[in-house]
Write a structure and sequence with these properties.
Elements (H helix, E strand, L loop, with lengths): L1 H34 L3 E10 L5 E12 L3 E3 L5 H7 L2 H16 L7 E5 L2 H4 L4 H12 L6 E5 L2 H4 L2 H14 L2 E7 L6 H6 L4 E4 L1 H5 L5 H16 L3 E4 L5 H10 L3 E3 L7 E2 L14
Parallel strand pairs: 2-4, 4-5, 5-6, 6-7, 7-8, 8-9
Antiparallel strand pairs: 1-2, 1-9, 1-10, 2-3
Helix pairs in contact: 3-5
The structure holds ligand C2E and calcium ion (CA) (3 copies).
One calcium ion binds next to β6.
Protein name: EAL domain-containing protein
Subcellular location: Membrane
Organism: Bradyrhizobium commune
């Protein structure tokens, strides 16, 4: 009936405005969180698969919300990107990660995720240089992880930007490989040092022979392009053994450690000797 229809719309509107309100609250909270330093950077190790030694840590942001506790990035990164808050958030993570890594043994690297939105900021290069300078971290100890969406938009500009980073000695990793509009031509056209195979491929590894085939082709391709390969989301030693047999260079996942606050990292563990 008509009235039921109208009710339906009313409910729909209310649901919409409730959602909008929740979003606005979250946006305001996130703005405050950045200003009040409620963001934390946690670190997850990645290992050199050749010798089993720890090679470095990936910096992963968390939000210590006064009422809601620790909020994972999947719940606020998209909002931060839509609102532009990713720019100050990303700078905070970069500066924090460089400052923390500068206190670690010099064989350890730090990997920082950069959003495609940050790539549109004209001063990103200066922001990165300032983070390195202020922390004293050697550029070759910083790795920047970007997803392939950076390559789709503004390809030529981003390519030039990546070359400038490489020139400084910064390492570049292509994150979440295999999940987006991956085209192999991107790999040849952009100066990546490393490909990170998305964890969805690792998850299927022991059940789906196809995943092994995909991973081994990525390894072959990467070798031909003089790039190394990281497997993310390694949870079991079976997966790790299989991945080593397939020729991956680095491994990251719960098997080796979860993301942890900087104070909880055990820095006394053996570190790979830098050659
Ligand atoms: P990502 O860059 O692909 O990071 C890896 C994610 O996989 C992390 O989730 C990590 O905790 C999780 N992970 C690691 N090992 C395992 C495993 O063995 N099994 C499973 N199931 N998961 C594992 P997290 O910390 O929740 O981060 C989610 C995403 O949020 C990241 O995915 C990244 O895209 C984004 N993110 C996190 N920190 C930042 C940041 O500072 N800046 C930007 N732009 N994005 C960030
Ligand atoms: Ca990443
Ligand atoms: Ca990833
Ligand atoms: Ca991701």
């Amino acid at each position: 009936s008509k009235s039921a229809g109208r009710n339906c719309f009313t409910i729909y509107d209310e649901a919409m405005s409730a959602e909008l309100e929740a979003r606005n609250t979250l946006e305001g909270d996130l703005r405050d969180a950045i200003a009040r330093c409620q963001l934390e950077v946690h670190y997850q190790p990645f290992m050199d698969a050749n010798n089993g030694a720890r090679r470095g840590f990936e910096a992963l942001v968390r939000w210590r919300h006064p009422a809601r506790g620790l909020i994972p990035p999947d719940q606020f990164i998209a909002l931060a990107e839509e609102t532009g808050l990713i720019v100050p958030l990303g700078e905070f993570v970069l500066r924090r990660a460089c400052a923390d890594a500068a206190t670690w043994p010099s064989g350890l690297m730090v990997a920082v995720n950069l959003s495609p939105i940050q790539f549109k900021e004209a001063d990103l290069f200066d922001v990165i240089c300032a983070a390195l300078r202020d922390s004293g971290l050697a550029p070759h100890r910083l790795e920047i992880e970007i997803t392939e969406s950076v390559l789709l938009e503004r390809g030529a500009e981003n390519h030039a930007f990546m070359e400038r980073l490489k020139h400084l000695g910064i390492e570049l990793a292509l994150d979440d490989f295999g999940t987006g509009y991956s085209s192999l031509s991107y790999l040849t056209a952009f100066p990546f040092d490393k490909i990170k195979i998305d964890k969805s491929f690792i998850r299927n590894l022991t059940h789906q022979p196809r995943s092994s085939a995909i991973i081994s082709s990525i390894v072959t391709l990467a070798r031909g392009l003089d790039m190394s390969v990281t497997a993310e989301g390694v949870e079991t030693s079976e997966e790790y053994e299989r991945l080593k047999a397939l020729g991956i260079n680095f491994a990251q996942g719960y098997l080796f450690g979860r993301p942890q606050p900087v104070g909880q990292i055990d820095l006394d563990e053996p570190v790979q000797s830098s050659q």
